[in-house]
Amino acid sequence: LNLDKRDVAASAVSCMVTANYRVLEKGDGIGEIKVKDLTLDDGLSAQYVGNITMESKSSPGSHSIRLKSGFADADFSGSETIASMVRDLQDISVKRHLPSLFPASAPPQTDSTGDYSLSLKMHDSRKVLPFIKPGLYIADSTNVQLKINGNGNWLATVNSPRLALGRNYIKGSDIRIDNEGDRLNAVLNNAEMRLAGSVLHKTLLTATARRDSVNVLLHCDGDGAGDPHGDLKISGSFSRDGNDSLSIAIEPRSSEFYSEG
Description:
This protein is mainly beta. Helices cover 7% and strands 57% of the residues.
């Protein structure tokens, strides 16, 4: 499956899987997949993950999936499938507001969507995430919520004590992404973040996107004398030429940022 991206001699996944799917008289479907005694072995050590259960129900205009495990719980419900949700979300977010990121051959963007709800709650996932992405860490009790309605309005929130990839991290993060005001909006409020070797405290990152243009503001209050503080502003734009080649322009804006010591 190529799940383990680490530079190791060999890796292995062992478990027992049972699957059952039933079609009822009205055409509704009920399915269940059980993974028992999942163990991940990178050739150096074996990590016992435990059991995973996934249940699904499907009928015209109604689909649901429930995942329960020791490392994460997730619930999905929607008027269409979860694959349709991914396509609809792309249409009403990036494709709507940054269309030049997609080649001319890409399917046209649509505004109508299904109704969807997705929730994810993380538990201790330290035995699993390194097999998916080396250096990835998502803290226990991290919560993700996504809601999309049939009018194409959507809201996603992430609350996490700590998110990390390698040596870069953010602590105490509250993230909100939506498409209010006919634009793509993102707000990341963090107690502390480390990026490119610099540690920043009490940061607020805001970004908006509309008509192939992006504006980003990083505000940092700092945490005492000498701590980095101030504002950094960047604008960007995307376009395509006659050959359908993507062009990206980035422009620093008027900013004031201070770092002492």
